Structures are given as structure tokens and as C-alpha cells.
């Protein structure tokens, strides 16, 4: 009886930013696994286990960041490829529980440290980079993690201030 070599690879996202890779091998001995990030090789390894799995994470390897990944498995008589992408997620703002109300002519300073996060771990820390008023009833400024809201005339503390916030990851500051 002739046995056919078979490889079954999977790559799936875990916790949005980690890659869980696994391969099941039948009648294949010591295939070579190559992992490409975009088109750059970041790993080459001989697989000795017919049920191999590995979690690729930024925590364990700083090369595992948002991008496209290709897993190429080569053996004597064949090859198999699987692909996956770690997306570039948007920065998250946790603004719950913040009171941005300010009385006419008043000033409110709001500390946003710890409230800005990039789901892609390589994008942290995140800094408040800009703010602007959208309703013209306030003037706003940014200093580090502090947002300062200065009320214009005819503003009541009960009115909602419409402010647009921009945040930047340190990875993008050159």
C-alpha cells in the first residue's frame, strides 16, 4: 500500500493580535516551515512533531506585528501554504465616566492617561496628539495626556461639549 503524504495547516488570530499556528502531518518527515511577514522571512524551522503548534505573539517575538503572514511548509515531495493577516486596529478611547461639562468662562482639565490604547501592542503607548472643538462653544488644547476645555460665553455646564480627539502611537513619531 502506498501512503500519500498529507499536511493540514491552520493559522488563526487569537486575542486579535496573536497567531495560533498548527499543522498535522501524515507520512511526512521533517518538513521545513518558513514564516514570512509580508515577503520577509522571519522564521525557518524543521518540524519534528506530526502535531506541531505554536503561538506567535508580540510578547514573545517583537516581529509579530500588524501585517500579512505566510506559512510555507515544504517537504520532499510537496508543499503547502496558508496565510493570515494581523489587522491595523484603530486606537481605542475609553471616555466613560468623564465629565466634560464646563460653565461659561470656565475651564476643565481632563486627564486621559490610561484611557487611550492601541489593540496592536507595538502601537503602545498612545499619546493624545490633537483636539479641536466641533461646536465652536469651547476652545480646547492638549498637553501630554491632559485635555483642557475652555468655555466661551453662553455655555452651560449641562451642555455637551463636542470635541474631536486625535491620538498617535509612538511608533509613528519620526
Give the overall pLDDT as a whole number: 89
Write out the strand line-up for the largest beta sheet, numbering strands in chain order: 4-3-6-7
List segments where confidence is low: pLDDT < 50 over at least 5 consecutive residues: none
Shape: rod-shaped
Give the % helix.
under 10%
State the helix count.
Answer: 0
Question: Ends: how far apart?
Answer: 62 Å
Q: In terms of structural class, how would the helical and strand content be classed?
A: mainly beta
Radius of gyration, Cα only, in angstroms? Answer: 25 Å
If you had to describe this structure to a student in words, what would you say it looks like?
The protein has 174 residues and is mainly beta. The chain is 0% helix and 52% strand. It has no helices and 14 strands. The strands form 5 sheets. Strands 4-3-6-7 form a 4-stranded antiparallel sheet, with no helix packed on it. A hairpin with a 3-residue loop joins β1 (6-14) and β2. The mean pLDDT is 89.
Amino acid at each position: 500500500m502506498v501512503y500519500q503524504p498529507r499536511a493540514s495547516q491552520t493559522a488563526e488570530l487569537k486575542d486579535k493580535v496573536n497567531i495560533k499556528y498548527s499543522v498535522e502531518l501524515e507520512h511526512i518527515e521533517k518538513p521545513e516551515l518558513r514564516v514570512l511577514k509580508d515577503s520577509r522571512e522571519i522564521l525557518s524551522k524543521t518540524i519534528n512533531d506530526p502535531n506541531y503548534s505554536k503561538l506567535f505573539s508580540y510578547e514573545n517575538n517583537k516581529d509579530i506585528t500588524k501585517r500579512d503572514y505566510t506559512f510555507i511548509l515544504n517537504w520532499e515531495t510537496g508543499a503547502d501554504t496558508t496565510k493570515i493577516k494581523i489587522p491595523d486596529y484603530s486606537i481605542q478611547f475609553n471616555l466613560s465616566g468623564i465629565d466634560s461639562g464646563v460653565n461659561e468662562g470656565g475651564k476643565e482639565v481632563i486627564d486621559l492617561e490610561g484611557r487611550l490604547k492601541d489593540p496592536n501592542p507595538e502601537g503602545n503607548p498612545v499619546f493624545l496628539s490633537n483636539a479641536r472643538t466641533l461646536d465652536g462653544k469651547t476652545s480646547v488644547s492638549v498637553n501630554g495626556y491632559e485635555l483642557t476645555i475652555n468655555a466661551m460665553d453662553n455655555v452651560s455646564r449641562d451642555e455637551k461639549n463636542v470635541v474631536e480627539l486625535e491620538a498617535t502611537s509612538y511608533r509613528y513619531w519620526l
